[in-house]
Amino acid sequence: MGETSSAAADSVDRARSLLRRARRVVALTGAGVSAESGVPTFRGQGGLWRQYRAEDLATPAAFAHDPRLVWEWYGWRRSVVSGCAPNAAHAALASAAAAHDDFRIVTQNVDGLHIRAGNADVIELHGNIARVRCMACGAPHSRALVQRMLEAANPAFAGLTAPAVPDGDAHVEDIDFGAFHVPACTHCGGLLKPDVVFFGESVPRTLVADAARSLESADAMLVLGSSLMVYSGYRFCEWAHRAGKPIAAINMGRTRADHLLALKVEEPCAAALGALVERLDDREFAR
Ligand code: NAD
Fold this sequence. Notes:
Structural class: alpha/beta
Number of helices: 11
Number of strands: 9
CATH class of the largest domain: Alpha Beta
Bound molecules: nicotinamide-adenine-dinucleotide
Radius of gyration: 20 Å
CATH architecture of the largest domain: 3-Layer(aba) Sandwich
CATH topology of the largest domain: Rossmann fold
Number of domains: 2
Mean pLDDT: 85
CATH superfamily of the largest domain: TPP-binding domain
Order of helices and strands: HEHHHHHEHEEEHEHEHEEH
Strand order of the largest sheet: 3-2-1-7-8-9
Helix content: 25-40%
């Protein structure tokens, strides 16, 4: 952890002891894990919800009201994500999962960075911004195909770039988004939607069940870079706590589950997780 304090090193050591006693671990990750890759979080310092309203951009009502605006928002987020690479936190988690059969990653992130870091087995609770699905018939569509459809229908948008800036805002060129055409499903003509769970939608049951099974057999839970303000993530902490499983968090700032945590490391994920997983690799991690 470089120059970080001895208090931080001490809390990482305590997290390590907690994990040493666990045979199986579930790690629940959130936007903070990807922050050091350059993907803005929603909450916390520089969070997007300081600039935008979730209700306008990421709810079923927003999509019904103005699908073009929602496509534009996700198009911008996707362009940010595609310019980012996994960081040391994703790499540490991928190596922990590869080294230990019983280390399961469940993510609230939609950026696909766990997969790009080599963790194909991640449970993506809220979907993946790189995929597209039809709202009417549910058919998945390749993002590459939809991108071609989008570019063909919207030539004025083809060269549009919207780089993220440090305050979480974006420099979007002065373009009339009212002229933007949303592509239709190639099977039934229905409305295509980014394959993400909007606020107010439910996480697919199969994913919840898969994550719940992993948690049921786990002895400990790690929360990484999440405010846990979204209930679909928070409920796993409630379940773990009720079942007497210790929960350790690495998160800068408050989480909704602070009262349920056995310990918290208030340090950036990349350094803290790197240090934690490096020490787990010494085989003291019970298997
Ligand atoms: P959140 O934005 O609510 O909370 C992120 C937390 O991480 C904050 O408490 C913040 O202070 C902390 N944090 C920021 N940088 C950190 C770092 N380097 N190390 C440690 N902690 C750090 O995120 P959430 O709890 O995941 O919110 C859930 C919703 O946000 C999900 O639905 C998710 O899909 C969506 N989201 C995803 C992404 C992504 O895919 N990368 C980005 C933004 C939001």
